[in-house]
Amino acid sequence: MNKLFSKPSLLLGLLAFLFFALPKQSYNPDFAINIKPNSGLFANKYPMEKGHQKFILNLIPMVKKSNQDVLQERKSLEQILEAVETNKEIRLPEQRWVSSLARKYRGDRNFDLAKIGKEEQIEYLKELLSRVDIIPIRLALAQAAIESGWGKSRFCVEGNAYFGIHCYNPGCGLTAEESIEEDIAVKAYESAQESVSDYILFLNSKRGMQAFRDERMNYLYNHSGTSLSKLAESITGYSENGEAYSQMINSILRNYIPDSISDF
User: Fold this and answer.
1) pTM (2 decimals)?
2) What is the share, in percent, of the chain residues with pLDDT greater than 70?
């Protein structure tokens, strides 16, 4: 998120950086997969440095893996919902698993499925299910390019911070050298994969991302003609730059991210 860099002049500088700066190989190599840039994949996009292409190609399998982990949770949750709807017994291990998932995605620390009635169970599980879902890979790539400066930002190089997520506990991350808000840091990670998974959890769990989750439901399931561009417009709460941030995402999507990349 761009809270630490939200002044208009800095926003213009970031835009210029994204489109014209020469990328260095400074993205974290802990998940290097040795894929050579595929010129055909990027044929209909702006000419770009191979560093940009490699940044995209290295992140794709990480987003895929994190999405698959979420889909495994979703599949198990769907099975439990179906069991409740068909009056089947929900065993204690399954109840405890739902409680752990509720804590992870909703922040509900003491939820107990057995203590509410069937209709309430169904309603709760459906709402939880709306959170436990994938993030379209192309959207994740566009945000990573913005938030990490194509992998060149100090936060990314030193802390594997690909998505600019803030944290507030001492020692949880890196602070901007020019920041006057010493209690706010950009969250650091042990690996790039951990950064990707936390980004997906952020969108799936935070209250401010509800509009995004609602629009994602339309995009993935309702066949209402919702586009990835419209989905990007719903993510304004991610940054203090609001609508300008969504415009940046859509610009990256149009000009740099291959259209042929699947959603998950």
Assistant:
1) 0.84
2) 83
